[in-house]
Amino acid sequence: MPSIIFLGTGGDEFVVGKQLRGSGGIIIKVEGYQFHLDPGPGALVRAQQAGINLRENTAVLVSHAHINHCNDANAVIASMSHSGFDVNGVLISNKTFVNGSEEARMPPMLTDFHRNCVERIIVAKPSQRIGIETVEIQTLKALHKDPNALGFRFITPKFNLVYTGDTGYSKEIVDQYKKADILILNLVYPSNAKEKDQYNLNFEDAVKILQKIKPRLAVATHFGKKMLEANVLDEARELQKATGVQVLAATEGMSINPESYSAGSKQRTLGTYKESRKEEIDDELGTGIEDEELPSQEEPQEELQAEPEPEAEDAEEIPKEEQSTLVIDDFEDGSKEEEE
Ligand SMILES: [Zn+2]
Predict the structure, then answer these.
(1) Which residues constitute the domain of residue 63?
(2) Å from CA of 155 to ligand 1 middle
């Protein structure tokens, strides 16, 4: 059964620093794959407590290079690969985690050793599409202190899930969330918060987002200190009342079945997309990642270096705003130079 499991719901440095709420990220199990989003401090412990076998991770996704989102990514990669004895899985990450950001004065957080423990590293910019057989992952723009921060959308045959990542609010940001059946919001600040910032969502932002997107389910997580003080259950209830959208406040280890929130009417769109565009893209660029047939170490490196693709031309089923080039770039930065 597909599931979304919260290995922690802590947001700011106070909550994470004291581990008032965990920070192990989110596990998404779907279509036989296991995706691990934003493994922050304690990811291994929280995974063990939740009965998650990290060896089964298909991919680790890092939205940005703040400690509470990526601290344990190296450790998770080590778990996935027996510290490189069995090179395994894919890392899908923003640029800063892999290569650092001069602009933000942030060093790379991925170690050279762990770079070589995964089969593929995809350094993503916003609006990229990454096909993993029947699951497509789209990267979304986020407004955050890490200038390369991302959100993620998972398009599966049964549901369409958006994870905002850490982001501030803007019209452009919200427009990206359209068609989400399930929307996971990193909601740091409660209603009427005196202290808030433009790089993280607050209650009022969440109201505007849900009123516009109307997902079948919204899950609030990534809570800051003020959010815990305000009581996350009350905030979720108020958010639901204000928007008419079902809202859950995530709890530690909470597991939900995303198929309960799939939209029959929306599957039509996904179906046509899957049949026409996605397979074509996968064929063209070799971005389809197959569980049993991930590129082996012996394969030449060129296999992994997809060339930038010009604008998508025949994506008539895809709304304009979602059209994008499927580019897997920066491979020279992420690919292994030396094979063992
Ligand atoms: Zn952050």
Answers:
(1) 3-261
(2) 24
